[in-house]
């Protein structure tokens, strides 16, 4: 359905996607970006934005099922405040921004808005997406980065230039990898000419740990401004204490009062889409684990067990189930087709006087990995099969990868539809 709408200068409407807006006459502002006569933009499903008429305007709104448009009152709308504060920080010379706040607060929107305002000043902008849970630029479980060359309404309009595997979609316990990824990629974008760096972070926003690690991120990156969106009353003092030492301090922004939030199921679906963008199986590679280290693998890091000991293990777990075994100082890893009885494992444990860890032969299938190429770029890929006896790993990736220098395993396993399988055991390979 296409609506033609006329708005008077200064008026505000809120658009919930999926919708496409074409400016027929005049100019409007959305997320700090200006759109004038003849230009159009899309508001994706799951998203809502305020549109402000900068002049008297005529618009064509192509509304898809589920979309809506309604007037917004100036008092309840945050757009002007967001733009004002972003401009103020840029005018002060602030160039490195870390955007923080709880889930659905508007962090990614604010990150896009800062980018839009910087672009209007003719500055070169780089975005680092550090939200491993609701990643927009790269796939979930990765820190990713891209240069921005046009106005953005959604970070998903970008394609990652660089990615670094974190390996988990929850930041807790992955803090070091996230900080390292953000710092490395932020500095990389800077060295390639980005004058303004905007880091979008995860929505883990509960207690000291969740915030301190974001301080580290800002500190090592040399970010000068924290922008805190929708901070609950009980966290304002803490956020202020932790970030106020930055050269541009911390700027508190309100969340949009009326905004589209996402259910658990929608988040999961959004993650599936983000995986799909980077993991479409276009090429298959066979990696020789004898020569290429597989970081995060228990079995492939251990020494193969052969001969009589292997035979004894095979007899204990069942010859038809046994695939391979390997051992390190403290543990014997047995790869087998399930089910294997716990009694059989404890018999083997007594025999070898080590802990025994069972690895299902299929456990690694569709586990997300990063392939490290010769430039140390990391390319997302999916394990298809591990040949334990032959020490080879078959993976699929969406793009050609030259020489693979290393493989890094994540703890993310996907189904065929790119949604995640629940929790993984420690050793899948
Ligand atoms: N000015 C606005 N008015 C209404 N909704 C908005 C506005 N700005 C952003 N939103 C919506 O708020 C929701 C949450 O924003 P998002 O930036 O994705 O949050 P976060 O990254 O913190 O999870 C999104 O649906 C976004 O489209
Ligand atoms: Mg976000």
In the CATH classification, which architecture of the largest domain applies? Answer: 3-Layer(aba) Sandwich
What is the CA-based Rg, rounded?
A: 25 Å
Residue runs with pLDDT of under 50 for 5 or more positions: none
Number of strands: 26
Task: Please name the CATH topology of the largest domain.
Answer: Rossmann fold
Average pLDDT confidence is 96
Q: Work out the helix count.
A: 8
Major sheet: 7 strands, mixed
Structural class by sheet pairing and helices: alpha+beta
Strand arrangement in the largest pleated sheet: 13-12-11-14-10-15-16
The CATH top-level class label of the largest domain: Alpha Beta
Question: Can you offer a commentary on this structure?
Answer:
It contains eight helices and 26 strands. The protein has 429 residues and is an alpha+beta fold. The protein folds into three domains: 2-76, Jelly Rolls (Sandwich), CATH 2.60.120.1030; 79-263, 3-Layer(aba) Sandwich (Rossmann fold), CATH 3.40.50.300; 280-429, no CATH class. The strands form five sheets. Strands 13-12-11-14-10-15-16 form a seven-stranded mixed beta sheet, sandwiched between helices. Helix 1 packs across helix 2 (107-120), helix 3 packs parallel to helix 4 (207-221) and helix 4 runs parallel beside helix 5 (236-243). It is elongated and about 85 Å long.
Summarize the structure.
The chain is α+β, with helices and mostly antiparallel strands. It has helices spanning 79-91, 107-120, 175-191, 207-221, 236-243, 264-279, 307-317, 342-352; strands at 2-7, 12-16, 19-25, 27-30, 33-36, 40-43, 48-53, 57-63, 68-71, 96-100, 125-129, 142-148, 162-165, 196-200, 225-229, 250-253, 283-288, 294-295, 303-304, 322-327, 331-336, 355-360, 367-373, 378-387, 392-397, 404-413. The longest helix is centred in the middle third of the chain and has 17 residues, at 175-191.
């Amino acid at each position: 359905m296409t609506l033609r709408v006329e708005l008077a200068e200064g008026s505000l409407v809120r658009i919930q996607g999926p919708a496409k807006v074409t400016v027929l006459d005049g100019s409007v502002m959305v997320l700090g970006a200006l759109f004038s006569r003849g230009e159009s933009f899309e508001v994706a499903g799951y998203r809502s934005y305020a549109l402000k008429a900068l002049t008297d305007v005529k618009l064509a709104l192509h509304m898809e099922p589920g979309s809506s448009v309604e007037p917004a009152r100036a008092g309840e709308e945050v757009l002007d405040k967001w733009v004002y504060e972003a401009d103020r920080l840029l005018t002060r010379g602030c160039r490195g921004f870390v955007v923080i706040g709880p889930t659905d607060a508007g962090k990614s929107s604010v990150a896009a808005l800062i980018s839009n305002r910087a672009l209007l000043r003719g500055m070169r902008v780089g975005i680092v997406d550090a939200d491993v849970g609701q990643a927009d630029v790269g796939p979930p479980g990765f820190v990713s980065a891209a240069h921005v060359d046009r106005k953005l309404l959604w970070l998903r309009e970008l394609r990652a230039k660089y990615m670094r595997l974190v390996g988990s979609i929850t930041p807790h316990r992955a803090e070091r990898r996230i900080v390292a990824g953000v710092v490395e990629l932020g500095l990389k974008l800077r060295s390639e000419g980005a004058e303004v760096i905007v880091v979008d972070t995860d929505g883990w926003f509960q207690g000291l740990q969740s915030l301190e690690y974001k301080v580290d991120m800002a500190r090592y990156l040399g970010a000068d401004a924290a922008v805190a969106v929708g901070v609950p009353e009980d966290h304002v003092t803490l956020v202020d204490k932790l970030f106020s030492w930055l050269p541009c301090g911390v700027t508190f922004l309100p969340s949009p009062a009326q905004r589209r939030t996402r259910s658990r199921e929608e988040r999961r679906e959004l993650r599936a889409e983000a995986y799909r963008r980077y993991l479409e199986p276009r090429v298959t590679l066979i990696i020789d684990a004898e020569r290429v280290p597989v970081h995060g693998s228990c079995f492939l890091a251990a020494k193969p067990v052969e001969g009589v000991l292997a035979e004894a293990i095979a007899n204990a777990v069942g010859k038809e189930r046994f695939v391979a075994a390997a051992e390190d100082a403290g543990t014997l890893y047995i790869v087998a087709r399930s089910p294997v009885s716990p009694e059989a494992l404890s018999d083997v444990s007594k025999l070898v006087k080590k802990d025994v860890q069972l690895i299902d032969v299929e456990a690694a299938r569709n586990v997300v990995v990063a392939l490290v190429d010769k430039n140390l770029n990391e390319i997302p890929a999916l394990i298809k099969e591990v040949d334990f006896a032959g020490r080879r790993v078959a993976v699929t990736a969406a793009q050609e990868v030259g020489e693979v220098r290393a493989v890094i395993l994540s703890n993310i396993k996907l189904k065929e539809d790119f949604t995640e399988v629940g929790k993984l055991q420690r050793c899948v390979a």
